[in-house]
Design a protein that fits this description.
312 residues, alpha/beta, Rossmann fold, Hnrnp arginine n-methyltransferase1, six-stranded antiparallel sheet, 37% strand
C-alpha cells in the first residue's frame, strides 16, 4: 500500500475531526486504555494519547506499522505500543476500555470492519468497553442521470464492425466509485432510503440484505442505484458519505443496470441488495431491480452480480 493512500486519509479533515470528537467524548484522561485496530500511520492512536489515554496499543498488519513506530518516536509518545500483526490472529495483550477502527471503505464493509470489531468486542474489550464506530447505516437511491451509464457503454461505439457486448455486460456487473450530485438522483435525492443497519456493538452478520420499494409519483428514467453510508461513531457523533454530507475522501457508489429503463407514474420500482464480506473471500455484492405495474404485476427484472464483473 502506497503512502499516498494514507496522505488522503490524513487530508480528510471531516473524518479526522469526527473521530477526534468521538475519542474526546469517551476517553477518561489518565485512565482509559485504547486499542487502535488497523491503525495505519497511528493517527487515531496518537490522538487518543494526546487526549489523555493512559495506554494506547496500535495494531497494524501492513508495512505501514514500521512507519507508525518512527512517527511515534518522533512525536515523543511513551505510552504507545505498536504491534505489527492482524488483530484477529493475535492473542490480545490485555483488555481495553476503548477499541477504535477506521476500516471503512467506499462500500462500508469492504475492509471487513464487521469481523474486525466483532473480534475486538469479544476478545479485546472490557465488558463495559466502547467500540468506535458503533453502528453503520447504508442508504440507496435510484440514479436517473444518463451520463454515468453512458460512460460505461462506450463498448457500443468501438466501430469497425466489431461487437463487444460481452465486455459491456461484464462492465455493467461492476460497482463504480463516483462523486454524485443530488441532480443525479431520483427526486433530487429526496427518494433516498435506508436499506441496512448494522449494530457493531452486538453480534452482527457479515452478509447484509435489504429490499426497498419506491411507488413512483412521476415518470423517471432509471440508469442504476447509488449507495453510501453513515456511521455513528459514538452517541451524537455521526460521519456520513452521502452527496449532501460534508465531502470526505470517501465517495458514493454507482451500481449500474444492464439496460436503462423508464418507470411510469403509479408503478413500483424495487431494489434488492445483498453483500457478503470476509477475510477469505473478499467482497461480493448483488443487486436486482424490478418494476411492477399499477396492478402489481412484474414487467421488468434485471439482476447484476459483482462476481460477473471480473475476468476469470
Amino acid at each position: 500500500m502506497r503512502i499516498e493512500y494514507h496522505r488522503t486519509l490524513l487530508a480528510d479533515r471531516v473524518r479526522n475531526q469526527a473521530f477526534h470528537e468521538a475519542l474526546k467524548r469517551v476517553i477518561v484522561p489518565g485512565q482509559s486504555r485504547v486499542v487502535d485496530i488497523g491503525s495505519g500511520t497511528g493517527f487515531l492512536g496518537f490522538m487518543a494519547a494526546k487526549l489523555g489515554a493512559k495506554r494506547v496499543v496500535l495494531i497494524e498488519t501492513a508495512e505501514i506499522a514500521a512507519l507508525a513506530k518512527r512517527l511515534m518516536k518522533a512525536n515523543g509518545f511513551r505510552n504507545i505500543e505498536v504491534v505489527p500483526a492482524h488483530s484477529t490472529e493475535l492473542d490480545p495483550p490485555e483488555r481495553f476500555d476503548i477499541a477504535v477502527s477506521e476500516t471503512l471503505g467506499n462500500y462500508a464493509f469492504e475492509e471487513n470492519i464487521i469481523e474486525t470489531l466483532g473480534d475486538a468486542r469479544d476478545r479485546y474489550l472490557e465488558p463495559d468497553g466502547i467500540l468506535i464506530p458503533q453502528r453503520v447505516r447504508q442508504y440507496v437511491c435510484p440514479v436517473t442521470s444518463a451520463k454515468l451509464h453512458a460512460g460505461l457503454s462506450t463498448w457500443d461505439a468501438v466501430g469497425f464492425g466489431l461487437k463487444f457486448d460481452a465486455a459491456k455486460e461484464m462492465g455493467l456487473n461492476n460497482i463504480y466509485v463516483r462523486w454524485l450530485e443530488a441532480s443525479d438522483l431520483l427526486e433530487g435525492g429526496r427518494a433516498t432510503k435506508q436499506w441496512d443497519s448494522a449494530d457493531l456493538a452486538k453480534p452482527t452478520k457479515t452478509t447484509r440484505t435489504g429490499q426497498i420499494a419506491w411507488e413512483m409519483r412521476a415518470k423517471a428514467h432509471i440508469t442504476g442505484l447509488a449507495l453510501w453510508w453513515s456511521a455513528d461513531l459514538v452517541d451524537g457523533i455521526t460521519l456520513g458519505t452521502g452527496p449532501s454530507d460534508p465531502r470526505t475522501h470517501w465517495e458514493q457508489l454507482y451500481l449500474p443496470v444492464l439496460e436503462p429503463f423508464d418507470v411510469a407514474s403509479g408503478e413500483t420500482l424495487t431494489a434488492r441488495l445483498r453483500s457478503t464480506t470476509s477475510y477469505g473471500e473478499g467482497t461480493n455484492v448483488t443487486w436486482t431491480v424490478t418494476v411492477a405495474d399499477a396492478k402489481g404485476r412484474d414487467r421488468l427484472k434485471q439482476t447484476m452480480d459483482l462476481k460477473k464483473g471480473f475476468l476469470p
